[in-house]
Amino acid sequence: MTRDAQDAARRRLAALADDPAVHRTPARDLEQDAALLGRLLAVAAGRRQDGSPHGEMADDVAAGLRLFEQMRVALDQLETQVVMEARRCGMDWKQISQHQGFNSSQAASQRYQRLTTRLEEIRQGIR
What we know:
The protein has 127 residues and is an all-alpha fold. 76% of the residues lie in helices and 0% in strands. It has helices spanning 3-14, 26-50, 58-88, 93-100, 105-124. The chain starts with a helix and ends with a helix.
């Protein structure tokens, strides 16, 4: 997907942000965690530039690392939900694959199947 297409998608979806229903959702939690990680990296870069010892941030970096597994699960859940919504809207796998940047409808369908299998294994405690 081109940068212009991504920017257009962001603008279109940003218009939905005024909906009060999106104030406390997994997507909002993911957004906040990503922002926290961005701040962590900005602080780390600033400290590298001013020569601060790296060890001072070890606990902060460890806290950042702890966020990733839940962020991956949340992102997988969001992706499967959006794909399900796309199917409900009448999109076929070829259309979905194009929007996801895959080369074939089979690739998009297989991705969806892998995600749903992974999420079910996590739900059952297998993973």
